[in-house]
Design brief:
The chain has 91 residues and is α+β, with helices and mostly antiparallel strands. It has 2 helices and 3 strands. It has a 3-stranded antiparallel β-sheet with strand order 1-2-3, with no helix packed on it. A hairpin with a 3-residue loop joins strand 1 and strand 2. It is elongated.
Length: 91
């Protein structure tokens, strides 16, 4: 890990196209930085990245029963004149 000390307005370059600018210190509330990077790069706070990864892991571990329960009532509408419940009898 590279550790640097910066003053407001000073910048850090990462490669040729990423610039991190130190904007201000807010004491115990942290610091403000600005990041200038190409649009195709995703920039996420670590806690957001972790939350998304956790949600994706949870989704992949859902049981088949959970998935089927989530699908109940989401099927296509039955054609008119046809009962939507296959066990229903027709008069």
């Amino acid at each position: 890990m590279l550790v640097l000390t910066r003053k407001p307005g000073e910048k850090i370059m990462i490669g040729d196209d990423i610039v991190i600018t130190f904007l201000e210190s807010r004491g115990t509330d942290g610091i403000r930085i600005g990041i200038d990077a190409p649009r195709h790069l995703e920039i996420k706070r670590e806690e957001i990245f972790g939350a998304v990864a956790d949600a994706n892991l949870e989704a992949t571990q859902a049981s088949a029963d959970d998935v089927l329960r989530g699908l109940v009532g989401r099927g296509p509408d039955a054609p008119s004149g046809t009962p939507s419940d296959p066990s229903a009898s027709t008069p």
